[in-house]
Amino acid sequence: MTKMNRETVIAEALDLLDEVGLDAVSTRRLAKRLGVEQPSLYWYFRTKKDLLAAMAEAAMAPHAAAPLPTPDDDWRDWFLENTRGFRRTLLMRRDGARLHAGSTPAGDLDRVRRKMEFLVASGVPERDAQMAMLAAGRFTVGSVLEEQADPGPDAAAELPADMPAIDHESAFEAGLALILEGLARRTAPGHRVPLSSNDPTTGGRSIR
């Protein structure tokens, strides 16, 4: 029997995710994998939802460990690499984007604040920085959702001849470039930000 603690349960749950996919992850399967009775898991996680939230946070560890920006960094280069790093981390786990979608980064809010402070100090208007980070995060999650749901080359072979197969990385890079270009234009001297009655809140979701 595996010696259990909270970290072990999460690690085994992530390995189970990689083996069977998100839909097949269950506390019953996890308990069997750990060699314990299912109720033993409730000592660490009251519900499956709590377990999935902990798995989502742990799956983000590589991105959370990335160096924070420094004052000498070019904000455009940093914005690109930060978003690419988020994508790479989502792709590390089977169904990584589905696991992450809708999660709130409770464990790294200080990192999010420091990233926002860096963008603002670099001359990006605060609201634009917030919305750009949100847009890039949601775009990345959506892109990886599509990529991880791709049935593969067999399905692509059935497409019409005039419809090229999607290169997911190229499509991601093109979309990311458009987001950055729009943000750069809004930071240009003399740009006037139009007033809007809409003020969407983020709740911290997908700002990475």
UniProtKB/TrEMBL annotation:
Instruction: Look up the DNA-binding region in the UniProt entry and give its residue ranges.
Output: 26-45
Residue ranges, compositional bias (Polar residues): 195-208
Q: Which UniProt keywords apply?
A: DNA-binding, Repressor, Transcription, Transcription regulation
Q: Name one Pfam family in it.
A: TetR_N
Region Disordered, annotated ranges: 189-208
Q: Which residues form the HTH tetR-type domain?
A: 3-63
The name under which this protein is listed is TetR/AcrR family tetracycline transcriptional repressor
Species whose genome carries this gene: Streptomyces demainii
Q: What is the lineage of its organism?
A: Bacteria, Bacillati, Actinomycetota, Actinomycetes, Kitasatosporales
